[in-house]
Amino acid sequence: MRNETALGLAEAQGPWARVLRFVLYAALFMVFAGPLLALMVGAFTPTVDPTQFTLWPDRLSLDNLERAVDRNVLDYLLNSFLVVGGGLALQVLVSVFAGYALARKRFRGSAVVLVLILATMMLPEEVLAVPLSVLLADLPLLHVSLVGSLVGMIVPVAAWGFSILVMTEFMKEIPKELEESARLDGAGEFRVFWQVVLPLCRPALGVIGIFGFTMIWDQYMLPLLVATDPAQYTLPLALRSLRSDDQVGIGVLLVGAFLAMLPSVLAFLALQRSFIRGLTSGAVKG
Asked: What are the UniProt keywords, alphabetically (predicted)?
């Protein structure tokens, strides 16, 4: 029986085919994972020439990490965790409630609301920078300035159109019979949402969790608008200031870049199963 690949081509057999596949996989690994491995090795290797990296270091050292700690890189890392923790919690909360309202409830103007949410995803950050800075300087109704605080970096990311759309479309696929059965058993609105609808949305929560974490973690424009003191910098913004400092060596920048990359990788590994189930939930119907 001949095995076929995803492209419908017959898989070649024999020793030369195995060698060819090994070479191909090794080349793909080097293309995609090589720069990340070079970054990790360079962060813990005394680097003199920034143009020379190796995947096999002669010796490992924590000198770069110690210098990075002296440059308050860990403080910037903590700020990033505070922003992404608060922002992601609010973003997931807003997404699930908004998705439930748009998917399970009927009201006039729901299509217009979805179009407006989609429109927010089409505007680049540079276009939103000026009005966003004005709003953060004088929050409507409350007349409070969020500039110069981590809260000013959390509030704007509390609602993201992508997460709301993902939750809305996923909740639309949940059979209404489950909801009706729960109501016949005497369940109220919140209980139906909490015990019936939300547990079935775990794959979608994994998707918005990974994408939301990455979006907030990689924010550069928002901290640039809000931060008024270097102590308020997040790690991506701090890397810019460290790069412009002539006294900072390449090793400190590599450590900062490695610390900026690591949480996103760990978040993906932690939510990988939910992420894959969320992407493939509509591919197979039984």
From this structure: Cell membrane, Membrane, Transmembrane, Transmembrane helix, Transport
2: pLDDT strictly greater than 70 = no
Contact 154, 86 (CB under 8 A): yes
- What DSSP line would sit under 107-172, residue for residue? -TTHHHHHHHHHHHTTS-HHHHHHHHHHHHHS-TTT----TTSTHHHHGGGS--HHHHHHHHHHHH
Question: What values do phi and psi take at 4, rounded to 5?
Answer: -120, 145
pLDDT score at 154: 95
Separation between Cα atoms, residue 30 and residue 7, nearest integer Å: 23
Angle subtended at Cα 237 by Cα 267 and Cα 93, rounded to the nearest 5 degrees: 45
Q: Are 224 and 39 in contact (CB under 8 A)?
A: no
Mean pLDDT of 203-220: 91
Structural contact between residues 99 and 159, judged by C-beta atoms closer than 8 angstroms? no
pLDDT in tens, 105-139: 888 888 899 889 888 888 888 888 888 999 999 88
Helix ranges (DSSP H) in the chain: 15-43, 63-70, 73-104, 110-120, 125-137, 151-154, 161-172, 176-184, 189-191, 202-217, 221-226, 235-243, 250-270, 272-280
Q: The tokens of 259 are what?
A: 């610390």
